[in-house]
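Below is a filled-in request sheet from our internal design queue. Each sheet records the structural input a requester submitted and the sequence that came back. We keep these sheets so that new team members can see what a complete request looks like end to end.

REQUESTER: design group, bay 2
PRIORITY: normal
MODE: inverse folding
CHAIN LENGTH: 441
BACKBONE (tokenized):
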């Protein structure tokens, strides 16, 4: 193995922390950087500040190796690193649908101000196309090393819940570069990954930026497509789960991301499709991705329709009714509640006057901070105590395994809405439950 470059990872959230930890395990010397002192202290002490299966064990391994350290100092990072990965968040702006570039711009500026020698800055954050070109200018203007500093784009495709797996062996790598040197640097920064035969696609900067938003838009479109079919099923008495299964046999369609239900949420898909539509409008090609607004609309309607189902099961009046909300995270195996459909439904029902008790195996604490007005249970059964309706909103395995008879004994009425098609309707109905799900008779 040729001498490995030293890496810094700027931003230690879901993406950055995972990248820093996995790269250190794979043999690189890595410095993780964040402006959040609490996060840096926790990570340095071996504690992952969020829920991600397998990551705490990997962090322990990385720290034991002596190859992973954390800092809040950009000067130290600039001094240490040969390749600097930018992994900070690009949330939706408060005043529009565009991406908020504050953190990207601030971190790149802080790093560049300290760059005194040849280095590669690699963007991983999801950004509006054209950002890399803008940042190239910014870096060259700001860095003492001037145009010795190059910029590349390497979008990240990891899924929360599978972050370690997706980082150690991604299905592809995309290197957006402006020179042969940058490509070779990236190849050496991913040597152990490439050695496993992971395909790499080398592109220009703007194509690399676009790959990411195009991928997330496609995934969002696929989910909304099947959820649109669910709406049609509801009007006709057809069954969307049978429909989806039948479609999935066609290899060209495939069954992945074709699970109907409450729809997509999280810190990526919803804000990425909005930012993409916004950026396309700025570029004068808004019409080309105008359908993304419809994709967003279909997705939002799933949440509203789930609330409607609760109303149907409570004879049109939820005020004073007890609702057990099973799940708060945007998907199972995560404690992430950003734009979580589950919490959205729970909070809406509360606003409508229902007494909502939430239980999520990992996200209760995050949910409580964001929605202190809701009540929180200590288990699914605890949340379901005296409930008039139970609503399954996040498909955790432990919810799939609930015994309908046992839960039936603690509720006031045996009524359940399966927002994620996670339960077997026959066994719930056999136990005397009124079972309802979106897109099914
Ligand atoms: C998504 C992409 O899948 C990753 O490839 C990407 O790297 C990441 O965004 C990102 O941009 O950082 P993630 O947000 O972790 O990953 O979650 P997904 O597994 O994509 O699920 C997103 C949402 O779609 C969840 O709320 C999930 O419940 C929902 N979903 C997913 C469905 O409703 N139906 C499906 O068939 C699949």
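RETURNED SEQUENCE:
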């Amino acid at each position: 193995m040729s001498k490995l470059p030293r890496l810094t990872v700027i931003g230690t959230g879901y993406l950055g922390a995972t990248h820093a930890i996995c790269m250190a395990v794979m043999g690189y010397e890595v410095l993780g950087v964040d402006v959040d002192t609490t996060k840096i202290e926790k990570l340095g002490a071996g504690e992952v500040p969020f829920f991600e299966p397998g990551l705490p064990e990997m962090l322990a391994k990385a720290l034991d190796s002596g190859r992973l350290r954390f800092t809040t100092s950009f000067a130290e990072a600039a001094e240490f690193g040969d390749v600097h990965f930018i992994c900070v968040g690009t949330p939706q702006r408060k005043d529009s649908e565009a991406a908020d570039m504050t953190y990207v711009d601030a971190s790149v500026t802080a790093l560049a101000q300290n760059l005194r020698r040849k280095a590669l800055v690699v963007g991983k954050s999801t950004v509006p196309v054209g950002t890399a070109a803008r940042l190239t200018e910014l870096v060259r203007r700001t860095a003492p090393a001037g145009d010795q500093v190059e910029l590349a784009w390497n979008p990240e495709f990891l899924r929360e819940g599978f972050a370690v797996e997706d980082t150690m062996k991604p299905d592809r790598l995309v290197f957006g570069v402006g020179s042969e040197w940058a490509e070779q640097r990236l190849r050496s920064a991913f040597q152990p990954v490439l050695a496993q035969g992971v395909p790499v696609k080398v592109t220009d900067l703007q194509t690399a930026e676009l790959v990411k938003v195009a991928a997330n838009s496609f995934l969002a479109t696929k989910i909304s497509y099947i959820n649109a079919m669910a709406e049609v099923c509801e009007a006709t008495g057809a069954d969307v789960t049978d429909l989806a299964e039948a479609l999935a046999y066609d290899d060209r369609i495939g069954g992945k991301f074709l699970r109907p239900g409450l729809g997509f949420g999280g810190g990526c898909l919803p804000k990425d499709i909005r930012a993409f539509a916004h950026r396309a409008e700025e570029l004068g090609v808004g019409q080309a991705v105008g359908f993304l607004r419809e994709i967003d609309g279909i997705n939002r309607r799933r949440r509203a329709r789930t609330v409607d189902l609760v109303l149907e099961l409570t004879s049109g009046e939820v005020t004073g009714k007890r609702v057990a909300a099973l799940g708060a995270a945007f998907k199972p195996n995560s404690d992430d509640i950003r734009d979580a459909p589950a919490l959205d439904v729970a909070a809406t029902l509360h606003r409508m006057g229902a007494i909502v008790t939430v239980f999520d195996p990992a996200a209760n604490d995050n949910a409580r901070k964001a929605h202190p007005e809701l009540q929180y249970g200590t288990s699914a059964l605890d949340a379901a105590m005296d409930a008039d309706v139970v609503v399954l909103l996040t498909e955790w395995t432990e919810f799939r395994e609930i015994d309908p008879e046992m839960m039936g004994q603690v509720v006031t009425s045996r009524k359940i809405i399966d927002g994620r098609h996670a339960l077997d309707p026959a066994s719930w109905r056999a136990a005397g439950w009124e079972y309802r799900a979106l897109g099914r008779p």
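SHEET NOTES:
- The chain has a mean pLDDT of 97.
- Residues 142 and 366 are 38 Å apart (CA to CA).
FILED BY: M.R.
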